[in-house]
Write a structure and sequence with these properties.
Elements (H helix, E strand, L loop, with lengths): L2 H64 L8
Length: 74
């Protein structure tokens, strides 16, 4: 190989190593963003589930009272 070929090969090898390193960083950042989105949706879903359970409990108490029962809090 000529000197210029060796220099080109060295340059390409260094660029490839940098590209691989940047790809690894990008993958990690992507995983972090996906995890944050997942946690947000999980937390949001949990809050909605708590709200739904509270709402259903309130509806059940009203139905019990309408049927002549008493509220569990009485």
């Amino acid at each position: 190989m000529t000197k210029s070929s060796n220099e080109r090969m060295d340059r390409l090898t260094a660029e490839t190593a940098q590209d691989r390193q940047q790809a690894a960083i990008d993958r990690q950042e992507f995983r972090t963003e996906i995890r944050q989105i997942w946690e947000y949706l999980r937390d949001r879903s949990s809050a909605q589930a708590v709200h739904s359970a509270y709402r259903m409990t309130a509806q059940a108490e009203r139905a019990l009272i309408a049927l002549g029962g008493s509220s569990p809090q009485d």
